[in-house]
Amino acid sequence: MAERIDIDGIDKVYPGGNRALKQVSLAVEPGTFLVLLGPSGSGKTTLLRCLAGIERVTGGSIAIGARVVAGDGVHLPPERRDLSMVFQDYALWPHMVARDNVAFALKRRGVSRAEGRATADAMLTRVGLGKLAERYPSELSGGEQQRVALARALVGDTGLVLCDEPLSNLDADLRERMRIEISSLVRQAGATAIYITHDQSEAFALADKVGVLEKGRLVQLGVPEEIYAAPASPFVARFTGLAGELAVRIRGGDRGDGTVEVEAATRSSVRPFRARIGHSGPTGARGELMVRPTAVRLCAIDGDDHHLVGRVADVAFRGRGYEHAVELSCGTQLSNVFAERRVERGESVGLRLEMSGCLVFPGDGAATIGSVENAAGGRLADAPPAESTLAGALQASAVEEVGSWK
Asked: Span 234-375: which CATH code?
């Protein structure tokens, strides 16, 4: 049965002094699908490992339901936290067929061998693998192995499912199909899910709530629409998808509707336009404009409804239409500019900006989109590698039980 998760001010400091988590607090209601989003080194994997019990917290506490599982001298091991996990590398037993991999989760709960195998068969059928129950992991494709891992996580009915970037090793088409399967199966089971990823489109598609981490801190928590429409900082805006950013001049103050009139501080500017004030709005005459891809429209350059002019630097066919990269005279590039018709490279175009997708933050010499990974600090030097997952701990603790159930 799903239970509330309370994470209260947890810290994690590794030997050498690297602080991977800094006073992270959040509450997850039963049945919520929470996605933790952030680049490498942001602390999302460390947070999941602390919740799973593979890492000890340095400070703060974690409670699952009424039980404190970490903090104040308490540290329950993974097998006593009543949770299951779906791993990036599947973590299947290579010498067990799919049925036995799934049923092993039930064996640890004291279920008989016959009942465990029957329940495992039913769960494999549920994930579309009923006919492959007798196959070993080496005989399954990556997507099939991931579905076995998902079946194993759900069959125990733990109420809490942790997902460690489970789709990152799959191709794009399979990743989308598996995303739908994970979403459907977890919600049908009524479980609470905490899922980590660095892919913002995956996060928005899956989540009831999204938590964004930066350098070990939880910098924003909210529903996907809130994270996208009202990012708490330029970092959150960048990491959740921008066409680009450019310096602007503020032409007038807030009219009371949360918007200001701005104009691009470059020769590419044609006329002023209105933009929404970011969470920390501009305090002077200059600001940094964050532009969502959905806010940019291509226009004829001889029209009268565009705000900027530029030159098409690249164009890519995307099936439903074309995505363009447009370079402004100042060298700034706006990418992922969609249009149903193709505009050739080198052609001059007008750009109309929609207020709903333009956010103004203080003009602080913000980094470009490409530097988001570096801005997040990269991987913490003394943190254990992501590949060192809970799978190893669980398998080590269970290895002696394998033979007794055969």
From this structure: 2.40.50.140
